[in-house]
Amino acid sequence: MPAKALMIQGTASNVGKSLLCTALCRLFSRDGYTVAPFKAQNMALNSFSTADGEEIGRSQAVQAEAAGVRPLVEMNPILLKPDARAGCQVVVMGRPLGLMSPERYETFKDHAFGVIEEAFGRLAASHDLIVIEGAGSPVEMNLKDRDLANMRVAAMANAPVLLVGDIDRGGLFAAIIGTMALLTDQERRLMKGFVVNRFRGDLELLRPGLRFIEAETGRPVLGVIPYLDDLPFPAEDSLARVRWPAEGPGHTQLRIGVMALPHLSNDTDFDLLAREPGVSLRFLDRPEEAAEVDLLILPGSKNTIDDLEYLRTRGFESAIQDHRRRGGAVVGICGGYQMLGHLIRDPCGVEGEIREAKGFGLLDVSTTLTREKRVAQVRAVPCNHLGWQVSPPLEGYEVHLGETMLGERALPMFRLLGDGGVSAERLDGAVSSDRIVWGTYLHGLFDHPGLRRQLLNALRRRKGLVPLEGPLGDRGVSFRSALYDRLEEVVRSHLDLSLLYEIVGLHMPTRKGGERGAQPRVS
Q1: 101, 113, 21, 102: which is closest to 67 by C-alpha?
Q2: Catalytic residue among 263, 323, 400, 443
Q3: Which CATH architecture has domain 254-464?
Q4: Per CATH, which fold does 4-232+480-514 belong to?
Q5: Residue 323 among the catalytic residues
Q6: What is the pLDDT of residue 493?
Q7: Catalytic: which of 21, 25, 334, 448?
Q8: DSSP label of 234
Q9: Is 88 annotated as catalytic?
Q10: pLDDT in tens, 362-405
Q11: Going by C-beta distance under 8 Å and a sequence separation of 6 or more, which residues neighbour residue 65?
Q12: DSSP string, 30-92
């Protein structure tokens, strides 16, 4: 029997669609159903490599992990990565097809929807439920008739739709009722109810407004989700970036600054660093902020040469060099690693018209950008000359263009593990002779508690602070698992589950102790 489907759409971007989909993936999975996330077309710079070396949106990988299933390329068949040249890199079924202008992509959409249908069909054949995430708003009237991510997908999947609105930003009632007014009669039949997100205040004061929504639309409000400001889930798309508090948990001993690049990608690399006790992590917009940090991180970039030139024109180059001269540590991830070298060459024009750019020269490496993108999951161990003891091996992933060559004054950073052993031909990254500057192509390394401990303790020793000892705490997977559980519990307790299950068309299992877990509807 083909899977049931449920689609979550939003009144706008960044209203909480990804978060609610993650919670529902966890909820239905914990209730005994096999669940897969799905987003037909995703525009995002945060991407992830599947085990088969295919690139998908990071949010679908997170949702798959919450559902307890392996991330598959079918979960995000079309990925659009915004490019500095007024277009997007189009990734189809995990493989980059090339750069397309908006006009060219319009002509590609009919083919793209065929890809979407095939991917959804394969997921539906092997799962009980597909939780589908929409994109932006379903009623952008200049785009609606060619939209690949919202109502056309709901109709294809015969999926009931829940519309999410963010009450914290204001305009909730106009957004919900206006969305309903702009749908066609056929589309309105698919719209089954609403979820109010990011509410803080007295629910009793909100109830008259909820009754107004129900009276105006003839649809129920299934629940009101409270404002969750302490769950560090990343922004799904390029419209929002996590800005961590100026002070992390506990008394601040170490300050970490991440360059706020215009084309910053995979900022999820720093989620767990930001939550370490005694650590403050901030995204830096001004050069003078670099003087305040102990560790400076150059993150991944979708357009490395453009972001390198941005840092240079904004005055960051001298700030980076001054930080280095003061003995400050510098780490580069992916595109940031390339920037730390002497030179970045782009002979094929992969990133634009600039064929060669001078790097910051903090590592004795040079990079040549290539047309072929490397996308892979990897396991790694630090090279012996670092003196770092990390167990179990690091787990990360590569999503990058380019090959980097090490000079005489650079040593490799990591050895990549093959099947059952170490491949001497697969080394990654580079470290300076004094071990203060290093770079790598591997994303996700800071999820490993052993690596975080080694890095942060090295910073503490340089500041004359006592290194942390004792238990390392959770690895990334178990840490995120606890977040998924907490998110699911909050959403479960604030939704009318009996109505949710009725809308989806699945049987709601009995919870422990005979309780069904459903909450009374808000109205």
Answers
A1: 21
A2: 443
A3: 3-Layer(aba) Sandwich (3.40)
A4: Rossmann fold (3.40.50)
A5: no
A6: 96
A7: 334
A8: P
A9: no
A10: 999 999 999 888 999 999 999 998 888 888 899 999 999 999 99
A11: 71, 477, 480, 481, 484
A12: HTT--EEEE-SEEE-S-EEE-TTS-EEEHHHHHHHHHHTS---GGGSSEEEEEETTTEEEEEE
